[in-house]
Amino acid sequence: MTADLSDRFGPVALGAEAGRQAFRDAMACLPAPVTIVTTVDEHGAPCGFTASAVCSLSLDPPLVMVSVSRTSSCFDALAKASHFVVNVLGRDHDALATRFATSGIDRFSGGELVSPGEGLPAHLPDALASLWCANHECISAGDHVIVVGRVADAVARPGDPLVWHQRGYLTTR
Ligand SMILES: Cc1cc2nc3c(=O)[nH]c(=O)nc-3n(C[C@H](O)[C@H](O)[C@H](O)COP(=O)(O)O)c2cc1C
Known about the structure:
Blueprint: H1 3-13, H2 20-28, E1 32-33, E2 35-40, E3 46-51, E4 54-58, E5 63-69, H3 75-80, E6 83-88, H4 94-99, E7 129-141, E8 144-156, E9 163-165, E10 168-169
Antiparallel strand pairs: 1-9, 2-3, 2-6, 4-5, 5-8, 6-7, 7-8, 9-10
Bound molecules: flavin mononucleotide (FMN).
């Protein structure tokens, strides 16, 4: 191990935590997918938010994970919901992604997402991919909760993805 690396691992042994800004700056270097995760709340009202902390977990059974902030207005709904949909956004969906990350507005007002029936999660028909999930497990992870979904159905379409990198959408900067 080089002197530099052992310097950096010294604090690991001591149980130190990286500074908040250093952590955020490092994670900003990690290109991330952009999705809209949708569900319904306990009254059957639609709920959805833009999420990048989404990835595949297992092939057998097919599992995906979504990390949701405990402070998110969708937190309760997603943690308690029996079903949710992960919609993977394409490069032209940046305005939609921004709307689904904006607080205090009706995110569904544009009508782009459609629900198969009242009380069922909406999906985006022109998403690059949609994954219909049953809530499999919730795992506490600091100020977030990892919601694991068992994928009941999935579709994929050709196209380029919307990518979040260095605090912006790659395609719009
Ligand atoms: C590109 C992008 C990715 C995001 N990823 C997540 C995520 O993975 N998990 C999460 O809880 N919030 C994520 N957010 C924040 C939410 O979309 C939303 O803005 C936040 O929950 C505040 O909205 P609220 O009023 O619903 O609480 C992301 C926002 C953006 C712009």
